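Illustration 12: DUF624 domain-containing protein.
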Amino acid sequence: MRWCSVGIDLLWLSVLWLLGCATIVGAPAATVALAETVRLIQAGREPVIARTFWNAVREHGGIATRVGWLWLALGSVVVVDLLIVLRLGPEWAAAGSVLGLLLLAFLAASVFLPCVVLARAGHDTRQLLRLGVVVAVVRLGATLQAMLVVSVAAFLAVVSPLLLVLLPALCAHSLVFMWRMRIAPVLGAREVRTVAAVDSRA
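Figure caption equivalent — predicted structure in token form:
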């Protein structure tokens, strides 16, 4: 019976996330709401899924949207620059390597960005972007593992689109667990206190 309830929660969460992403503009807010709902589940709060999800959208939607779309814009600049350098010829190989590493670091920082937004709720966009980069650099191994989780989930979704009714929630559970176990404990004291404050407030 417990496994049935867990399966229904995963299904419901994934559907809510897909609905939130339907407008595309709402994707960052929906992703942060997914992470927040999963965080509460892992903390043993047993939240009402739909209510918790949409409350998180309302509470964190503004900052999530600003950070998410600014992050996407910065990533797009890196991708465009890399494509231009690759077309310039072999003499630009060094610049292409630097941009390639920059893109990898950018992608690594992206996987935990929803958790960063939740950990620093109420802080400004620049601070959140800075913390995202710090997480990617300080915990590169964990972020690369998280990238692998996301890549496998994306591959499975392409192979079998029906898995989209489960994969978003499963992926979120994995990333939030990794954040709690491997990222949050090694952040600075200020970030750890903020995480604790968010947990106590929920």
